[in-house]
Amino acid sequence: MNDAYLSVIARELETKPHQVKAAAALLADGATVPFIARYRKELTGSLDEVAIGAIRDRLRELELLDARRESIIGSLDERGMLTDTLREAVGAARTLSELEDIYLPYRPKRRTRAIIAREKGLEPLSDLIFAQEDRRDPLQEAERFIDPEKGVDAAQDALAGARDIIAERVAEDAQVRAAVRGLFAGEGTIRSEVHDDAGEGSATYRDYFYWEEPACNAPSHRVLAMFRGTKEGFLSLAVRPPEGKALALVEKLVCKGRNACTEQVRQASADSCKRLLMPSLENEIRAMLKARADEDAILVFARNLKELLMASPLGRARVLAVDPGFRTGCKVVCLDSQGALLHHDVIFPTQSPARVREAGEILRNMVERFVIEAIAIGNGTAGRETEGFVRGLDLKIPVIMVNESGASVYSASDIARREFPDHDVTVRGAVSIGRRLMDPLAELVKIDPKSIGVGQYQHDVDQTRLRDKLDEVVESCVNAVGVEVNTASTELLAYVSGLGKTLAGNIVAFRNENGPFRSRGQLKKVPRLGARAFELSAGFLRIRDGSHPLDASAVHPERYGLVEQMAGNLGCSVPDLMKDAGLRSRIDLKRYESETVGLPTLKDILAELARPGRDPRERFEAFSFAEGINTIEDLTVGMELPGIVTNVTNFGAFVDVGVHQDGLVHISQLADRFVKDPSEVVKVNRKVTVRVLEVDVKRRRISLTLRKSQEP
Predict the structure, then answer these.
(1) At 133, which helix (H) or strand (E)?
(2) Is the pTM of this model over 0.90?
(3) Cβ count near 269 (within 10 Å)
(4) The pLDDT of residue 518
(5) In terms of DSSP H, where are the helices of 112-154?
(6) Which tens digit of pLDDT belongs to each residue from 69-124?
(7) Is 210 helix (H, G, I), strand (E, B) or coil?
């Protein structure tokens, strides 16, 4: 472990070095972020998942920097170019760009104009000119390098070659590059223009046909839109600082006098700026802008996904789920309180009167026969019409619209085929809708997060980074809630700390063969689930009615003895301690402190004893859209409507008001004050009341506001 890294990270993240060191050691030992945050608070000083994740990510960046550093040193050494000074400079570099700037003059490169000039023997002339001594006449000096056999027919040819060498030297100078890079970052402008032959399809990018703004302030959604337009061939994109300032900055750094040699250096500098330096740094800045926009978009997606995964669950209840449709009818399934499929059928509530009556009878019979406690209806095509029909039956049970984004992806997946090999995609999709109502987290982990539709430009960002971040979010949510080991799917168990797909599959196979787990300790009998995996996972796995009363809680098995000691000291049993708040109030936590157990862990234990296996998600509340508002044509300006936030982006939020087309609340309409970050005001899946500002039926666009004032 590199102590220098730990100091750098502690300073950057404003944490204490010992906290970073402890977290780094645990990570190096294979501990997961959720495990460290929940069960190793004493070691890390109660660092949360965000801080631990930041330490992990920064360590990786620094390790990659070191790997590149070693690669560069190896390359230089192999080619006989490594000097003590160069080794010291490479070792002192603290950023990847600084490291690459040092290496650039020595990097193997294609045959450039400067290389050709060196082959002609003109490097001594370039050195002489670059020294910019007053007594030198560059033209006279150049005459000594005339050599027709090498292609240098005149003094002007020699000077041109020398300038090529100087231009490359300027473009590869670390100080020059750092200065111009700073100018790019501070005063660079991003500019997009439409191609003359853009043709059909370019209208999507109309806002960017002639667009210009400071690159440092360009929001991620606009940057990604411009990059997409460029990739699709509709736009051209440039990022440049003020060229005059860039040239003046370079000249200031390389021009040392006011003589004839300096004039040659000035010409070479101008050529270097235009031909080498600016294009090179533009590529670098474009990559930086793209990476920054990617990061912003990924964070938006991750934040939205977390809100969706942590949506309130209905919980264990018998559910009737409906996947709506017009022509092919509505697929209806009945699920037991564990989410198992009991029955399925098809109804046609939007067709002839006879079929509508028949649909009503079928639903009434299902509700009575299977003792249904709630009805879930997908919000896709015919969703509002189906909802109106079901509510009209007055079945005396909650009717809830469910966001079905990604249900079709699940229904056609290998996971769905394994779960329901004897049923078609329509049945699987309806089951998914019902299970989403019961437990959104348990069902949504079966779907690629990108299919859920809560991001911005998710297909344009770095897909590896996006996948890693979304997996991290899912892992965090799953472990925050905890998993019922006797009912969880393989997909859900795979996200539990320390498990993964193989062990999750082994747990399900063991459960299928031997029946429900009776204790956490029994998990050790699962093939390949060793002591380390048990340590990392056990606290996040729940066993209802297990042999030990704490098996249903978040108390880790390694602390069962401590709880038993507390109960023994009070002369009661562990179940008594869990039931009686008076007994718990008599516990003196300081009495149980030790080198490995401190107050943070003891307080967590006490909280778990009070509410074993507490679900951190909010209590479920039924929601319904406004009656009679089913299509975009039903909307009028000024109308106030209940809605559900379906997506939050950097430029605003999208809200479902029940008309099959989400409306946009622009960032300027989120509140009666300035809003910098929409996520400060709204969250995905939250209920809001919006007012209609504008309806464009032809373009299927709805503008909404959350502002209380009537002013635009």
Answers:
(1) none
(2) no
(3) 27
(4) 95
(5) 113-119, 123-131, 138-143
(6) 999 999 999 999 999 999 999 999 988 999 999 999 998 888 999 999 999 999 99
(7) strand
DSSP lists the bridge partners of residue 695 as: 702
Enter the tokens of residue 441: 């987290």
What pLDDT does residue 692 have?
94
Residues 6+ away with beta carbon under 8 Å from 76 = 82, 86, 90, 103, 106
Beta bridge partners of 375: 320, 399
Whether residue 575 lies inside any domain: the answer is: no
CATH at 667: 2.40.50.140
- Strand pairing class (189-194; 701-705): unpaired
Task: Please state, as a whole number, how many other Cβ atoms lie within 10 Å of the Cβ of residue 155.
Answer: 18
The answer on 157 and 26 residing in a single domain is no
Q: Are residues 296 and 324 in the same domain?
A: no
| Sign of the alpha-carbon dihedral angle for 485, 491, 496, 502 | positive
E strand or H helix at 326: none
Q: Is residue 357 part of a domain?
A: yes
Per-residue pLDDT band for 302 (boundaries 50, 70, 90) equals very high
Write out the residue range of the structural domain in which residue 398 sits.
319-438
**Is a pLDDT exceeding 70 seen at residue 1?**
no
pLDDT computed for residue 407 by the predictor: 84
Selection from 485, 491, 619 nearest residue 552 by Cα: 485
Specify whether 334 is located in the same domain as 298. Answer: no
Please state, as a whole number, how many other Cβ atoms lie within 10 Å of the Cβ of residue 243.
12
Distance between CA atoms of residues 437 and 315, nearest Å? 8
322 and 430 Cβ atoms separated by less than 8 Å: yes
* Rounded distance between C-alpha atoms, residue 256 and residue 244, angstroms: 19
CA distances to 384, 547, 584, 601, 616 from 611, rounded to whole Å, are: 39, 18, 12, 15, 11
| Per-residue model confidence as pLDDT tens digits over 115-157 | 999 999 999 999 999 999 988 899 999 999 999 999 999 999 9
Which of 438, 469, 496 represents a domain boundary (last residue)?
438
Verify that 343 and 226 share a domain, yes or no.
no
Q: Do 282 and 198 reside in the same domain of the chain?
A: yes
| Residue 152, domain member (yes or no) | yes
pLDDT tens string 336-362 = 999 999 999 999 998 899 999 999 999
Cα(240)–Cα(110) distance, integer angstroms: 25
354 in the same domain as 219: no
State both tokens at 684.
């995905």
Same domain, 242 and 120: yes
Do 173 and 245 lie in one domain? The reply is yes
CB atoms under 10 Å from CB of 156, counted, come to 12
Q: Three-class SS string for 507-565? A: HHHHHHHHCCCCCHHHHHHCCCCCHHHHHHHHHHEECCCCCCHHHHCCCCHHHHHHHHH
**Sequence-distant (≥ 6) Cβ neighbours of residue 660 within 8 angstroms:** 380, 381, 383, 384, 631, 632
For residue 273, CA distances in Å to 176, 249, 255, 556 come to: 10, 10, 14, 63
The total number of structural domains that make up the chain: 4
DSSP 349-371: TTS-HHHHHHHHHHHHHHHHHTT
Q: What is the chain's mean pLDDT, rounded?
A: 92
C-alpha dist (Å) from residue 358 to 329, 347, 352, 367, 613 = 12, 8, 10, 14, 44
* Tokens found for residue 16: 């204490």
Looking at the domain assignment, is residue 683 inside a domain? Answer: yes
**H/E stretch holding 640:** strand 640-649
Reported as a single tens digit per residue, the pLDDT across 520-565 is: 999 999 999 999 999 999 999 999 988 999 999 999 999 999 999 9
CATH code at position 224: 1.10.3500.10
Point out the domain boundary residue: 371, 403, 438. 438
